[in-house]
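Exercise 7b. Backbone tokens:
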């Protein structure tokens, strides 16, 4: 396997270096406060967000095929980490940290295996309605989880609705200075995103928060600050959890790997299309896996493609994966030399950063558009959203995926079909239900089945043939099956088709097949169906069948 760095590094142009360094510093400026904020979301001390950002940036620069994608802590991924680890670790912080790093490594290993198994097609496994509902549900969970910190009191971990009930019941305990500071920082973030979208809003909010805290002594006025953050780089270790933790961690890691990969690919594919180059889905699986393993061995938690930091990279004109390497160096220098001022940061500023990030995740426009375009898929989206905020992140997604698969099966079991007629003035044949000018061919029934003919829809196909024959104008001499939209036939489908042939012949009708593709024709030939159908009953097109059978006896 050839590493992507072996392709892009020899082709690197010296004139790109200035843009890449500037973009790398800008990415780090945004990534540092977000990594600290997302650590709160993942349930670990702030410094672990920086640990989770170092090796993933380096690993992806070496292994990744996207020129813009930045791998870093991600809000949705952090929410999953908390959902998986919190029930296992309880209040034991040391165990919690060990389990989060183990989860990252396990998710990474799963991604690496998936990449070598060439499972990159899973980029489309989570349908867009599921992703929309999932991200909107995550956004609501993040906002509800930060309300207590924003108002200056503590809420016990709970589900979305119970958390809201706790929040309402504790409003009398609001710490006004904390709330004022939090709302002010949230206003700064919103204004910057609208008035100066290229400026790093989280960095501005964190800088203002640290400066104000140092100047006015917020800690002395009851406003909680981060406190001491350990300086220095982490030492690589391999976490070994208790035997009973492996099974729930592995299950969580599988879901985490799928969701984080899809999230990363949505971002990577979007920026690759914008900048007109291709990415390798299987290589992306491997790169994400190595990045997660790197995060885990430094004590960090699971990471994914970071859309806000990737957008910063692109807006600053980043040309290559060198941007990630520069960002990693800046973050390492921060860990060594600048952790002391970070300790003055008010915790409520991080809550403001998280709430603003969650507001960006919640997509009203996508919900309304989905409702307009496809009410059925809109309902699937809402089920995912409600599942995430009620039964939890992973169970909610699992339920939604199961329902999506059930929906696909139902559609496949009862696919669209059509009686066809000739469109006047052409040699084309269209659905009689949608082409009012289409004309039936005397003595023939032209029928199209818009799906593979397989075991779970074979009986439906047989019933539809009977119904179509019963409804067709008499007399009828031939039944022509347009198989052009039928990509596959299995053994059961071939057997049912043979039964249909036999039933039609019993009624004095001949069956013909038109437009069958090679896989379909091959299966029908191997099962002996074509031999039993007889000579001159298989045609390349419907028009050829009509020309041969019009006026012919069965």
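Sequence design result:
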């Amino acid at each position: 396997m050839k590493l992507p760095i072996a392709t892009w590094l020899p082709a690197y142009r010296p004139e790109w270096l200035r843009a890449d360094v500037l973009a790398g510093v800008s990415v780090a400026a945004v990534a540092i406060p977000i990594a600290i904020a997302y650590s709160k979301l993942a349930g670990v001390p702030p410094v672990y967000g920086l640990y989770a950002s170092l090796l993933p940036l380096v690993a992806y620069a070496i292994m990744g095929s996207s020129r813009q994608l930045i791998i870093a802590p991600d809000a949705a991924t952090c929410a999953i980490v908390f959902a998986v680890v919190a029930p296992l670790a309880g209040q034991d912080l040391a165990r919690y940290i060990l389990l989060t790093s183990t989860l990252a490594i396990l998710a990474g290993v799963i991604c690496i295996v998936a990449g070598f198994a060439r499972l990159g097609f899973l980029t489309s496994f989570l349908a867009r309605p599921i992703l929309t509902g999932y991200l909107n549900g995550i956004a609501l969970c993040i906002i509800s989880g930060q309300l207590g910190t924003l108002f200056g009191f503590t809420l016990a971990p709970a589900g979305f609705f119970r958390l809201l009930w706790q929040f309402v019941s504790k409003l009398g305990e609001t710490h006004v200075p904390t709330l004022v500071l939090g709302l002010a920082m949230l206003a700064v973030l919103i204004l910057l995103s609208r008035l100066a979208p290229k400026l790093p809003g989280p960095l501005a909010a964190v800088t203002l928060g640290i400066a104000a805290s140092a100047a006015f002594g917020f800690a002395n006025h009851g406003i909680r600050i981060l406190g001491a953050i350990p300086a220095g780089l982490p030492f690589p270790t391999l976490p070994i959890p208790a035997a009973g933790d492996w099974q729930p961690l592995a299950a969580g890691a599988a879901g985490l790997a799928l969701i984080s990969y899809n999230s990363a690919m949505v971002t990577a594919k979007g920026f690759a299309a914008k900048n007109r180059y291709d990415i390798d889905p299987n290589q992306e699986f491997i790169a994400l896996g190595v990045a997660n393993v790197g995060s885990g061995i430094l004590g960090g938690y699971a990471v994914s493609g970071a859309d806000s930091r990737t957008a910063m990279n692109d807006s600053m004109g980043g040309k290559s994966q060198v941007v990630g390497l520069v960002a990693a160096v800046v973050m390492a220098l921060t860990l060594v030399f600048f952790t002391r001022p970070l300790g003055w940061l008010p915790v409520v500023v991080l809550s403001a950063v998280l709430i603003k990030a969650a507001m960006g995740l919640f997509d009203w426009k996508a919900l309304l558009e989905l409702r307009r375009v496809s009410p059925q898929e809109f309902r699937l989206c809402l089920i995912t959203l409600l599942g995430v905020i009620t039964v939890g992140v992973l169970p909610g997604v699992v339920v939604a995926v199961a329902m999506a698969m059930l929906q696909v099966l139902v559609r496949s079991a009862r696919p669209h079909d059509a009686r066809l007629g000739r469109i006047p003035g052409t040699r084309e044949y269209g659905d009689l239900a949608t082409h009012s000018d289409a004309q039936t061919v005397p003595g023939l029934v032209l029928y199209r089945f818009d799906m593979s003919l397989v075991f779970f829809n074979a009986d439906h196909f047989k019933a539809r043939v009977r119904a179509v024959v019963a409804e067709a104008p008499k007399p009828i001499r031939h039944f022509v099956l347009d198989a052009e939209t039928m990509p596959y036939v299995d053994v059961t489908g071939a057997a049912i088709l043979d039964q249909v042939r036999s039933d039609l012949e019993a009624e004095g009708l001949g069956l013909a097949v038109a437009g069958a593709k090679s896989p379909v024709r091959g299966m029908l030939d191997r099962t002996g169906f074509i031999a039993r159908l007889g000579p001159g009953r298989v045609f390349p097109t419907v028009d050829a069948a009509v020309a041969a059978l019009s006026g012919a006896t069965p």
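Instructor comment: DSSP finds 23 helices and eight strands in the chain. The longest helix spans residues 246-274.
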